[in-house]
Specification:
The chain is α+β, with helices and mostly antiparallel strands and about 400 residues long. The chain has two domains: about 220 residues, Vaccinia Virus protein VP39 (Rossmann fold), CATH 3.40.50.150; about 150 residues, START domain (Alpha-D-Glucose-1,6-Bisphosphate, Chain A, domain 4, 2-Layer Sandwich). The chain is about 25% helix and about 40% strand. It has a seven-stranded mixed β-sheet, with helices on both faces. Helix 2 links the parallel strand 3 and strand 4. Bound molecules: S-adenosylmethionine (SAM).
């Protein structure tokens, strides 16, 4: 399946410069280069490995517990990756990916080069924006040709743009000459300037010293929101307390609320719910993650922990997202119109960051939103339980 990994390919640039590439490099250990090792350490959440090649990084991440989608346009690469037993391998171009959301998008092995030109970066990062959770990150490796021993003094510059990283090369192996491929090597400074106009902030995470580097890109609007939140240090509590009687036995109401897999059924603002730790509907300590719609088109990632589960009387959930919330539900058996029922008392608190203005912020925004959401949840939950 791996063919002759002892062979050496020739990368022949249009300028005439030639670079030997050992086939083994395509099958290298996932952390062989400092840039790769650093990228793997920085991955979080759901990962899209773009141009995943022989799948070594995707496999490493899947074994570390990440949910990984590995894509490549080359059928041979996809065949090799399927042979590794990776759970989500797709033969597709990055540009054709459907609108799923990822926390990390990876372009290792200088894969960003398929942008071909500096202008091509706009298309790649436009697509990244569609596929990335707003709080997510893009991790990419590339090369500053001006600092690279093989390419620095070369005439790689494309006649059109004059940017030395817009190159063309062919692979040559055992006398077989491949087609000419346009490719982009972008230095970190130029990358940072190009993407800033499109709303991305970039930081250099690792520099190999020979022109190879790893950068992280995040959406500036998200970072600004985070920074603003941490500036407003003082925290107060927005609060909403209420009760509702549901015409269903206490055991089933408790079990329904404890099983967070039901959450999207009574809260339409919740998407992509996943169990991160513990057993579904089991007990204390289970941790879930989901995307939460804050306003039309604005989503955030939330992490929910089942903090207390005293069957069948009391549940307490802690929710961390832009704000931190605590939800306590107490259950009491009751009767309504001769039907066995349950009185649910709920107490929601939200830690509001807003310093001096927090009480005002609570009054005009947090409390009404919380009231609307809790009332809707209770109404939909009652409808589900009473229907069946
Ligand atoms: C330089 S290799 C890097 C492979 C691997 N990430 C690594 O670090 O070894 C670039 C990979 O990107 C793939 N590729 C090129 N254009 C692509 C596209 N538009 N969408 C997805 N993959 C692409 C190629 O087939 C190739 O496997």
């Amino acid at each position: 399946m791996r063919g002759n990994t002892a062979g050496v390919l020739e990368k022949r640039y249009a300028s005439g410069v030639s670079e030997p590439i050992p086939v083994e490099a395509f099958f290298r250990e996932p952390d062989r280069y400092g840039t790769d090792a650093c990228a793997l350490d920085h991955c979080r959440g759901r990962v899209l490995d773009v141009g995943a090649g022989c799948g070594q990084h995707a496999l490493h991440l899947e074994r570390a517990g990440h949910e990984v989608t590995a894509i490549d346009v080359l059928p041979e690469a996809v065949h090799i990756m399927r042979g590794l037993g990776l759970s989500d391998v797709r033969e597709t171009s990055f540009y054709d990916m459907p609108g799923e959301r990822y926390d990390t998008i990876l372009f290792l092995g200088r894969t960003i080069g398929f942008a071909e030109t500096l202008d091509g970066l706009d298309g790649v990062f436009g697509k990244c924006r569609d596929l990335l959770d707003p709080s997510g990150q893009v991790l990419l490796t590339s090369l500053d040709v001006g600092r690279n021993a093989v390419l620095a003094d070369d005439e790689c510059a494309s006649a059109v743009s004059g940017y030395p990283g817009e190159v063309r090369f062919r692979f040559v192996y055992a006398g077989i000459v491949g087609p000419e491929t346009p490719w982009l090597y972008v230095d970190s400074q130029t990358l940072s300037e190009r993407v800033r106009r499109r709303g991305w902030g970039s930081e250099l995470l690792h520099d190999e010293g020979d022109g190879n580097y790893l950068a992280r890109l995040t959406l500036v609007a998200w970072r600004a929101a985070g920074a603003a939140a941490s500036l407003l240090e003082e925290a107060t509590m927005g609060r909403y307390v209420g009760t509702r009687t549901i015409a269903a036995p206490i055991e089933s109401v408790f079990a329904y609320r404890l099983d967070l897999r039901n959450l999207p059924a009574y809260n339409p603002d919740v998407r992509d719910l996943r169990l991160l730790r513990g057993e579904p509907a089991a007990a204390e300590g289970s941790v879930y993650t989901f995307r939460l719609r804050l306003a039309p088109g604005i989503w955030t990632r939330a992490v929910l922990t089942v903090a207390v589960a005293e069957r069948p009387m009391r549940l307490e959930f802690h929710i961390a997202s832009l704000m931190e919330a605590r939800e306590v539900c107490a259950f009491e058996p009751s009767e309504a119109n001769g039907t066995e029922s349950t009185k649910v008392s709920f107490d929601y608190t939200v830690k509001t960051r807003g310093g001096f203005f927090a009480p005002l912020f609570d009054m005009i925004f947090v409390n009404p939103v919380m009231r609307r959401q809790v009332e809707r949840e209770m109404r939909l939950m009652a409808a589900q339980l009473e229907a069946g």
